[in-house]
Amino acid sequence: MTTTTLNPPIGRSTLPFVDARHPDRPLEVNCYRPASHGPDDPVVVVQHGMMRNGDDYRDFWIDAAETHNILIVAPTFPNEQFPKAEGYNNGLVVDADGAVAPREQWLYTVPERVLEALRHGAVIGAANTLRMFGHSAGGQFAHRMLATCGPGPFAAVMAGNPGWYTLPTLERRFPEGLGGLGLDDAAVIRWLESPMVILAGDQDIVTDDPNLPSNPEALAQGPNRFGRAHFMLDFARGEAARRGCACHWQLVPVAGIGHDGAAMSRAAAGWWFEGAVPPLDRLQPQGGVVA
Q1: DSSP output for 187-213
Q2: What is the pLDDT of residues 121-140, one digit of tens each?
Q3: How far is CA 151 from CA 139, 143, 165, 193, 243, in A?
Q4: Which of these, 202, 203, 213, lies nearest to 162 by C-alpha position?
Q5: Homologous superfamily assigned to 11-273
Q6: Domain ranges of the chain
Q7: Starting from the edge strand earliest in sequence, which strands make up the sheet with 43-47, in order?
Q8: What integer best gives the mean pLDDT of the chain?
């Protein structure tokens, strides 16, 4: 298998990327590389929302990147090549006929290969702390990646304002649960014991957003995204208690913020690199997106 090399220049860049497992579906990697970033400095992989706007999500992180010397890597999955929720949020795990794809074909394995291409380009090294943040559809992607594939190279995974959740149970089929994928109880426990953060805007409470999932499985989790975040954590804690294992998940509310990718990106950066969500006056979007 040919090794791809990525070596983004200083500042903003948009680089073509052909994943070896999906050679007929080209994607892009939007990066921001501070001038002082070295191979052992932090890296944040940012997963965009349903608008497939990885360039915007990269830009939401630029201030934090410069302040904390972070390489921002935003793999961008165009809707034309990766259509609808099945082609992005749900990771191409199950096809239209309900058949489970081979694990190496799941989109959740793509970010790790993007990082390997950056490592091959000597942009990152072996000692980096790697984190993943996803918002909205990207929050669905991030937590489902952790659920199905484990943490892989990531020291931390944060899901911001997902529209609905895959639950940590084998008794419901994917994407409502983890059933039907060949996973076992050990995989569920591994997920529950992973330090996942659910970042939830406390004003993400609209119920008539056309982009809010309204399938019966999603509605069963609550009427809005903020409520569904609480449902998810409560469900996980119940599963952990039933299984006799720990639940290391956190739900971090973001006061005053709704479904806004820019503000939630700032909140995530503050939580990870400053130890707390910044105050509202630092989170207010400057023309942010709603996805």
Answers
A1: HHHHHHTS-EEEEEETT---S--TTS-
A2: 999 998 789 999 999 999 99
A3: 15, 10, 17, 11, 20
A4: 213
A5: Alpha/Beta hydrolase fold, catalytic domain (3.40.50.1820)
A6: 11-273
A7: 11-17, 27-33, 71-76, 43-47, 130-135, 156-160, 196-201, 250-254
A8: 95
